[in-house]
Design goal:
single chain; alpha/beta; Rossmann fold; 39% helix
Length: 364
């Protein structure tokens, strides 16, 4: 009788470098790119959990990081060391595997729709040849069959009426802006909310680069003001002594999307609190006590403007305080968007699921 034999799965052995490198990448994200602090943490963890081996110590690990191009000496005289772009990419890849590890590798670059038209990938549907179809679309096998049936082998010839073509699947592209709150509350009360937000941003960036390279992803941070950052800057991102100027973040996000020519546009906002700041005539108007109606009204106006422009805003609230739900509810209703109250651990799943869902909406 045929069947299956199951045995205990043993994870392939990692080299001493690989084991330490996995931990190092997490620490360098936590320390916002500070190599010395990350190595100090790694040394303490080694003392407690015996991470190294008798013939391979932390010094060997540091030397191998240099030899492999993961770190560089900024100033040999002072001993300053920083990570390289190779490490930044490795950190994004690790974030992708940890957060979106359930993904299977797919065809990169496009989001499918139900429409046929100009595109890069051949579909399965056949139709008669029409003026304007490209030669690459002609299905030679089906066309030869038609010619044989229509004209016979003795008088074999092929005419335009014998030709059949395969439809190309129309593909659409999506422009996404990811807004990350870096106000002081993101590390308030001893809870680190910024590191999970950075990890999700890095994973989303790497996902789009690998699977949907024709999409665009812009990342902005907002505190008292809002500004755009590069993907390579994500590991170094830190919280500042800022209030939460959601209005500035939305205005910048809309400005970035206005320049994009893609049909589908969306905003993802990761935050843990209500808006507490706006800028008027070069001065900051701030109020951290309760929900300020003046600030709220400006947020709701922008939410409605996004709705008119068919830009959905999905809010990921990484705090569950009941009084925050009022703001999120009103904001989401004004935009006709979505809101998720999520734990830090579940943030990645929520963002991926919503990204995948939004990319499937029809092109209009």
């Amino acid at each position: 009788m045929l069947g299956f034999r199951f045995s205990h799965y043993t994870k392939p052995d990692q080299t001493p470098f690989d084991r330490l490198f996995d931990i190092f990448k997490q620490l360098i994200t936590y320390t916002s790119g500070d190599f010395n602090e990350a190595i100090s943490w790694l040394t303490e963890l080694d003392k407690e959990y015996k991470l190294t081996e008798p013939d391979y110590g932390i010094g060997d690990f540091i030397q191998e990081l240099k030899d492999r191009g993961y770190i560089r000496e900024d100033d040999p005289a002072s001993g300053g060391i920083s990570i390289t772009p190779k490490t930044e990419k490795a950190i994004r890849q690790q974030a992708l595997e940890r957060i979106f590890g359930k993904l299977k590798k797919g065809k990169s670059g496009n989001h499918s729709t139900k429409y046929t038209g100009s595109g890069e990938e051949m579909g399965s549907e056949l139709r008669p040849f029409q003026f304007g179809d490209s030669l690459e679309q002609i299905s030679m096998l089906e066309s030869f069959k038609n010619a044989q049936v229509n004209h016979g082998i003795g008088d074999f010839r092929m005419t335009e009426n014998d030709l059949e073509v395969r439809e190309k699947e129309h593909k659409t592209q999506t422009s996404t802006v990811l807004m990350i709150d870096i106000s002081h509350s993101m590390i308030l009360y001893g809870e680190d909310r910024i590191t999970p937000a950075k990890n999700v941003a890095m994973a989303l960036a790497e996902l789009i680069r690998q699977r949907y390279p024709k999409d665009t992803l812009d990342i902005i941070v907002f505190g008292d003001d809002a500004w755009q950052i590069e993907i390579k800057d994500l590991p170094y991102l830190q919280v500042g002594p800022y209030h939460t100027n959601t209005v500035a973040g939305l205005e910048l996000a809309m400005d970035l999307l206005r320049r994009r020519k893609n049909a589908n546009k969306q905003i993802f906002m990761i935050t843990d609190g209500k808006p507490t700041c706006i800028k008027e005539h070069g001065r900051y108007y701030k109020n951290s006590f309760g929900i300020d109606q003046k600030i709220l009204n400006k947020c709701l106006t922008l939410a409605q403007n996004c709705r008119k422009l068919k830009i959905p805003v999905t809010t990921f609230m990484v705090a569950s305080d009941p009084y925050l739900q009022q703001f999120v509810h009103e904001f989401t209703e004004a935009n006709n968007g979505k809101a998720f109250y999520t734990t830090l651990e579940g943030l990645g799943d929520f963002i991926f699921e919503d990204f995948e869902r939004n990319k499937r909406r029809n092109v209009r």
